[in-house]
Every structure is written in structure tokens, then in C-alpha cells.
Write a structure and sequence with these properties.
Number of strands: 8
Helix content: 40-55%
Largest sheet: 6 strands, antiparallel
Strand content: 5-15%
Shape: globular
Structural class: alpha+beta
């Protein structure tokens, strides 16, 4: 990796361009396996600096709480319950503004490096209500001044709480500082919920499955808040571990480690594959890392909440912190960096500093039990019916098993999107050309294809391109990852195909009036945990669905990234 410039694969563009898509992906996949995306070192330093600013902001906000002694007394107040409350809300604010997950070039965001607040404070942008036909006053897909006001109210409510002092008695506090006022907590829970019914993207971008759920525990009071938060942490770990019980996760490990700035030696990166350069399926090291990390997530939280302190808690906390540090230092695509920092803080503030508080110490059992069962129930539903539940509340984080899409867009359709969609960012191809130049932009485009193909579902997506577009016409389309379309159209993306499915297709067609054949979209559902198949749909943006069928997971995991000949079972 270069310090200022990217390390791109060297190819003879004229000869390379003559190959099929699979043949062009092959050298890109090999490059990814031993280099990764080739991100300049300065970009990794940029993300590290952003983590530093996140930590600085959290320290200053928590330290300004009345009664704690100021920022310089952090050693005495870092584990106070009110400080945990503020760090939760501060991280929620960080995410919903757009500074957290999905920020910057490692999430294909160049100009500007974020969307979120730039879109959601602007009337006329696209919104995606979760149940427009069922919930009154949520139909439509145009952002109105009401939506802007709701989003602004969310930001203001969180900021008010961050500046508040504690109230009431708190037996867990060493400083005698109470928890945040309940009315502030209720307001913070209500506003994102209402805004989320108008636009599900805002709720998901706030990482509501983590921070909103933890905010509910603030209503319990006293020790119950700490214990309730511990239970939610355990659900997060167990849910994420359960979703990794599949054949996809080793592909995530090999792809992530190839792109990690920590595993820089090429010889080390190659060890994560079966036999570089000809067999780029995950190798033994990838499988070992996948199994060990799943075991840590599955057992670490349970040991922490049951151990009650002492050497067992110390060892378990160290292992879980190292697990999150491993993800953090890999700086994975999508960059969920602050989330991992928050989880490390949570391990220390909840399970180490308050190790003696266990579920048996709850004063009011049922609120905590019901919240835990609700969170766990959503995870179970998401794994059984992934098409119905976003991978975020389903807690299928980095499991390699999520809904994905590929968009096949003719130049005429791209011009329509630029002309008729209210957006901050330009279309993905235009962004790449601006960064790399018109002639060289095809290289990072195909590196993106290689990244998708290195994951097991990529084999299915590129196979289905042949079925999605008319025979002999593939060169007339630019094949674009649905996440990039989503980034341009709605201002936020984080690997969730629920954000660029039929709902977004309809919203874009409404504005652009595509001609039949101008935009063809491949939608691939995640694998349900109890089945070994994935379902797909092929959509024409103008005329609707024209094919659906099934693909076997076994046919995906045995192929190479450049092989796009996966058997397909067509339903209709």
C-alpha cells in the first residue's frame, strides 16, 4: 500500500478489456487476496483520527456532567451509569448524523464522504417508510418539511440529554449522581420511532437495534439499568454469533483479512486462502479464525454476565475486548469502527466495573426479561425470515449472509437519475472517474466486483447478471453494486439489501420514468438459517419482476470468485 496513492493492480488495459467479466475479475480477485483494495495508508490514518475525535467528544461530554468532577477526573467516573447513558446517546448521535458506520471512501463514499444529515435535512430527497400501507400518515417516498423537522428534533433531543445532569438517587453511583431524567429518555425513544415510521433508513442509521434498545434500559433505574444493558449486550453477541453458523462466514474472514492494514505481508494474506492464486476459497486459517471468533461471541458474554468478578471475569473480558480490537484494527469495509470502540467500553463499564450485578439482582424482573425476549425474538425472526427483517435488527453483522443486489444500468438511465433525483453525491461511476480518471476508473470498479465476488453470494449475483439483461447486450450496461446506488439515492448504506430492493426501485422509477430494459436489478435474499438455499428475483425497473428462483449455497462455496456459472432453479 502506498502512503498517499492507492496500490492498484497492473494490467494491460487493452488486453484485459477484451476478456469476459469473469476473466477481468480474476486478476482483480488475486490482487485483492494479497493486497486488498489497495487503500492508501493515509486513509487508514484518517479513520484512526476519526476514532480519536469520537473518543475526545465522548470524554468531553461525559466529563462535563455536573457532579463528576470534570474531564480530568475521568479515572473516578468512567464507569458511572450516567456516563454509560451519555456514551450510548452520543454514539447514537454520531451514527445518525452519518459519521459512524458507512462513512468515507472505505464505504465507496468519496464526494462527499457522508450523506445522512446532508440528505435528511433536505426536503425532496427519497425516504423509505417501512409499512406505508399499514401505518397512517407514512405513505409516499418524498421527504417533506415534517420529515426534516422530525429528524432535526431527534438531533436536538439527544443533544439536550447529553448536556443534562443526573436526577434522583442512584445506589450504583459512586458520586451520588442520578440517571438522566426519564422524560428525556422517553422523548429520545419516541422521536426516532416516529421518524423511523416515516423513513426506516433513519432508524437503521441510528443503529436503533443497539442504542435505542439500550436506551430503553435507562427507564429501569438504578442497578436494573446496568443489568438490563448487560442482557442486551449478551443478546447482541449471541445473535451475531448465531448468524455466523453458516458456510458464508469464512469468506468474510478471508476477504477482511486481505484488506487489513495489520496483516500487511503478502505471504501472510495468502495463507487465508486455500491455494493462492488458483484457489481463492477460504483456507484453513480463515476457517480457524471464523470458528474461534464465533465461539468467542457465543460464550464470552454468557461467561461475563454469570461470573460475577474475579479471574474468570478478567479473562473473559480480555478475550472479548481482543475480539473487538481484531475487528477494529482490520478496518473492514463499511467501517463499523466506533461501534467496536463502544462495545469495548461497554465490556469495561458494565461487566468489569459492575461485575457483581447479575440478573438475579434485578429489582423489577419482568421489564428486563420482556425487553431481552423481544430483542432475541427479532434476531430469531431475522434468521428464519431474512427477507422480512433487516440484517441490522437481525444482528447478522459481518456473517457473510445478507440481502444483496446488483443493478444493471444503461447510460441513459444513469443520466435520468442524475437529472431527476435530489441527491448530494453523483452516480458511482462518475465518482470513480473523478477520483481515478476516466480511463483508469474501470480498475477500482472491477476491484469492487472482486470484493463482491470474494464473498460467496457474489458468485450468484454475477451469474444472475447473464439472466437479468438481454442476451448479447451486457456491454450496454454498467453493473453497479446496489449499495452504491443506495448511497447516491438515499444518503446512507451499510450492506443492507433491504434499502435497495423493490421499494427503492419504485421510488427511482417514479422520478425517472425508465424505459423497459433501461434498469435491470438482481435481488438476492439472504440464506434462512434452516435452509441451504437462497432465493432471488430479477426486476425490470419499468415493468416489474420477470423471474424468480433459487440457488443452492453448496454451489456458491465451491466456486472461485471469477466463476459465474452457478446452477439456477427457476420458479417462474
Amino acid at each position: 500500500m502506498g502512503f498517499l496513492g492507492p496500490e492498484l493492480p497492473t494490467v494491460d488495459l487493452a488486453e484485459w478489456s477484451k476478456g469476459t467479466r469473469g476473466e477481468r475479475i480474476r486478476p482483480m480477485a488475486r490482487h485483492w487476496a494479497e493486497v486488498g483494495f489497495g487503500t492508501p495508508v493515509i486513509l487508514h490514518l484518517f479513520y484512526l483520527a476519526k476514532i480519536g475525535l469520537y473518543l475526545l467528544g465522548g470524554w468531553l461530554i461525559a466529563g462535563s456532567t455536573p457532579g463528576l468532577g470534570g474531564p480530568t477526573a475521568a479515572g473516578s467516573w468512567w464507569s458511572e451509569p450516567i456516563v454509560f447513558e451519555k456514551i450510548v446517546l452520543y454514539t447514537m448521535l454520531f451514527e445518525v448524523v452519518g459519521l459512524g458506520c458507512g462513512f468515507g471512501p472505505l464505504n465507496n463514499r468519496y464526494f462527499p464522504p457522508m450523506g445522512s444529515i446532508l440528505y435528511w435535512l433536505r426536503p425532496g430527497t427519497i425516504r423509505l417508510p417501512p409499512w406505508p400501507g399499514r401505518v397512517p400518515f407514512t405513505a409516499g417516498d418524498d421527504r417533506t418539511p415534517v420529515d426534516v423537522a422530525l429528524y432535526a428534533a431527534v438531533l436536538v433531543a439527544i443533544c439536550v440529554a447529553l448536556g443534562s445532569g443526573g436526577g434522583g438517587a442512584n445506589p450504583v453511583s459512586h458520586h451520588g449522581v442520578g440517571l438522566l431524567p426519564r422524560w428525556e429518555i422517553v422523548l429520545i425513544l419516541a422521536l426516532p420511532a416516529v421518524a423511523g415510521l416515516r423513513d426506516k433508513v433513519i432508524f437503521l442509521a441510528a443503529r436503533g437495534e443497539v442504542y435505542a434498545t439500550l436506551t430503553v434500559t435507562f427507564l429501569f433505574g438504578g442497578a436494573d439499568t446496568v443489568i438490563g444493558a448487560k442482557l442486551i449486550f449478551v443478546v447482541i453477541w449471541l445473535g451475531a454469533a448465531t448468524s455466523k453458523l453458516n458456510r458464508h462466514f469464512p469468506f468474510v474472514v478471508s476477504t477482511m483479512m486481505s484488506n487489513s492494514p495489520v496483516t500487511r505481508p503478502r505471504a501472510l494474506k495468502r495463507r487465508f486462502f486455500e491455494r493462492f492464486p488458483d484457489d481463492l476459497r477460504p483456507g484453513r486459517w480463515s476457517r480457524v479464525v471464523a470458528h474461534v471468533s464465533t465461539a468467542v461471541e457465543m460464550t464470552g458474554g454468557v461467561v461475563l454476565i454469570c461470573s460475577g468478578g474475579g479471574p474468570v471475569t478478567a479473562v473473559a473480558a480480555t478475550v472479548v475486548i481482543c475480539f473487538h480490537l481484531a475487528i477494529l484494527t482490520a478496518i473492514p469495509m463499511g467501517v463499523p469502527l466506533e461501534w467496536n470502540v463502544f462495545m469495548i467500553y461497554g465490556v469495561s463499564a458494565l461487566f468489569v466495573a459492575h461485575a457483581g450485578l447479575r440478573p438475579g439482582d434485578l429489582h423489577h424482573v419482568w421489564p428486563a426479561v420482556l425487553l431481552t425476549l423481544l430483542a432475541a425474538g427479532i434476531v430469531i425472526t431475522g434468521n428464519l425470515f431474512p427477507r422480512k427483517v433487516s440484517f441490522l435488527p437481525g444482528m447478522r453483522y459481518y456473517a457473510g449472509n445478507w440481502d444483496t443486489t446488483l443493478w444493471c444500468v444503461r447510460p441513459s438511465a444513469a443520466r435520468k437519475i442524475d437529472a431527476h433525483v435530489v441527491a448530494i453525491a453523483s452516480m458511482p461511476q462518475a465518482q470513480l472517474e473523478r477520483v481515478y480518471g476516466k480511463d483508469r476508473a474501470v480498475i477500482p470498479l472491477y476491484l469492487g466486483y472482486a470484493f463482491r465476488a470474494m464473498n460467496s453470494h457474489g458468485r450468484a449475483l454475477f451469474t444472475l447478471v447473464h439472466r437479468a439483461v438481454p442476451a448479447g447486450c451486457e456491454d450496454e450496461y454498467t453493473v453497479t453494486d446496489g449499495e452504491r446506488i443506495c448511497s447516491t439515492a438515499i444518503g446512507w448504506n451499510f450492506g443492507d439489501g433491504h434499502l435497495h430492493n423493490e421499494q427503492l426501485i419504485a421510488a427511482l422509477h417514479k422520478r425517472c420514468e425508465f424505459e423497459p430494459g433501461e434498469v435491470r436489478v438482481i435481488l438476492l435474499d439472504a440464506q434462512p438459517i434452516h435452509r441451504q438455499t437462497q432465493r432471488y428475483r430479477l426486476i425490470d425497473a419499468a415493468t416489474g419482476e420477470f423471474e424468480r428462483g433459487t440457488i443452492k449455497v453448496a454451489d456458491l462455496v465451491t466456486r472461485q470468485p471469477w466463476e459465474d456459472d452457478v446452477p439456477v432453479e427457476v420458479d417462474r
